Amino acid sequence: MGQAFSNLMKNIAEGKFVYTGELEAHRSTDLSEVIQWAKTLKATGKIVAANVTDNPQSVGALSSLVTSYIVQRETGLETVYQLRCSDRNRLALASDLLGAAALGLKNVLALTGDHPKKGDTPEAMPVFDLDGTQLVELIHKMVYEGRDLSGNEIHGPRPQFNIGAAANPNFKPLEAEVLKLERKAEVGADFFQTQVVFDVNVALEFLDAVSHIKAAFLIGIFPPRSYNQAEYFAKNVPGVQVPKDFLESFKKISELPDKTERRRKIDEYNIEYFADFIKQVKKKPVCKGIHVMAVGYPEVVNPIIEKVEKG
Amino acid sequence: MIVTKEKPVEEILEYLAPYKNVLVLGCDGCTQPPRGLKQAKMYAMLIEMAAKLRHKDIKCRAATVAMQCDNYLCSSTVHPQLEGVDAVLSLACGIGVQTFAEVFPDVPVYPGQDTVFAGSQERENGKLYERCKACGDCLLGETGGICPVTACAKGLMNGPCGGCVEGKCEVPYEIRDEKGEVIKMIERDCAWYRIYERLKKLGRLDLYRKYRSPRDRAVSAWPRLLEGV
Lengths: 311, 229
Prior knowledge:
The complex is a heterodimer. Chain A is an alpha/beta fold. Chain A has a single domain (7-224, 281-310), classed as TIM Barrel. Chain A is globular, with a radius of gyration of 19 Å. Chain A has helices at 7-13, 32-44, 64-75, 90-102, 132-144, 174-186, 200-209, 227-236, 244-254, 259-282, 301-310; strands at residues 18-23, 47-52, 78-84, 107-111, 162-167, 191-196, 216-221, 287-292. In chain A, helix 4 (90-102) links the parallel strand 3 and strand 4. Chain A has an eight-stranded parallel β-barrel, surrounded by six helices. In chain A, 44% of the residues lie in helices and 15% in strands. By secondary structure, chain B is α/β, with parallel strands linked by helices. Chain B has helices spanning 9-16, 37-53, 71-78, 94-103, 148-151, 191-201, 205-209, and strands spanning 2-6, 21-27, 59-65, 87-90, 109-111, 113-122, 127-132, 173-176, 182-186. In chain B, the strands form three sheets. Chain B has a four-stranded parallel sheet with strand order 3-2-4-5, with helices on both faces. Chain B has a three-stranded antiparallel sheet with strand order 1-6-7. In chain B, helix 2 (37-53) links the parallel strand 2 (21-27) and strand 3. Chain B starts with a strand and ends in a 20-residue tail after the last helix. The chains are: A alpha/beta, B alpha/beta. The A-B interface holds A 86, 90, 112, 114-115, 117-118, 126, 128-134, 137-138, 149, 166, 168, 171-173, 176, 179-180, 182-183, 186-187, 195, 238-239 and B 153-166, 170-171, 193, 196, 205, 208-214, 217.
């Protein structure tokens, strides 16, 4: 792990258990909704930083660089600027990274990114000049050597980024994933944020398998707002295992006739389930926090965290 | 082998519209499926018939070259065939078409094929798979004989990516009709998953674990030239 530049990494370095959130811009020039959501996350007082997605699932959206900057400026919430290799070559990536440094961003999440064929612009050229691991190397070189991958010198102060990368606890065989994460850590990843995990046993097995890697691990969770959302993960998000009990409980609640009662029960269930989940993963020393991807569902974030903190 | 597929007749007729006497020129080289004399004769007949149906008169002759991409062979074989010919429809790959254009700068030449990729043939199922991007920087020695540049949809050096689930790639093969519309999708194995499995079998997971630096894309920047051959 490198130096701590961001509040996120400073908190981790101080031994605090951290929570990150997620913000998603759309194909729009209007960021008011994103800013509102960022304010909600900030108001929790528990979310130390929020990721800003970069053309998620290869669906075109307002630039993550611009969104990250405006969110920080308007709300004071620190961002984790997501950057994908799908759409830019190393020249453009380095250029955007210099821009990010000039705008005061401190966290970058280096991603390979989905193939354009997965998104709404399947005719686009898939770039992938670098992959996610090589992007980690590029950022590391810029921060610690003041140079890009070709050795070209950066003039003026070096960028100050903490470098994040993605991990997938659901990957089978886990050994292949762990070796891959070793590579990412070797070239300079400070922290890993994982793919959504529902099954705590999957998370625990993963955390044991990566305990030798010198980086901070933040496990990704997604409290669903409805049975449909939970079912969506089980059926449509390949590789994500949703435990049977979890799905069945959601199904039962979804059958309640009263809407308010249903909402209350779903909130209660999520708070109970994920607080217990977090308490268990928190016991693993390599687990330094949780990445909460509860986009559009702010009411559960605080209660979950409060319940964890109460012990 | 170089894999090609037939261009739609409509497109070919559009190219040939201004001409009366056309030479359909096959290639006996590595093109797959075969595009030799037999196919050239079939094309010649087909074009004449299709033209007639559209009330046009095109006369076609057929010939072939051992390797259309060899300028010496192309020149010596084709030269005697060109008398009275207004245009040539080449059944070779894009390289053959271009060699012809260089050898005979005054003769209009049109492609009868779309050149798709450098591939390998699976005879029992009648399939051709893309296997080599001719990147000029072969790393098969490190990846268990499986090419990530070609077989990984993203050409990743440090895969697999998050799009690999249960050993399958997030991007399936697409089979397209002659209009280019996708008519079928076929699931495909993740190249890096295969690389992992093969290297594990060979006891060389050290090669899988190894970090691979960004590629020098200048090596494969086009167009390329080799001297002294």
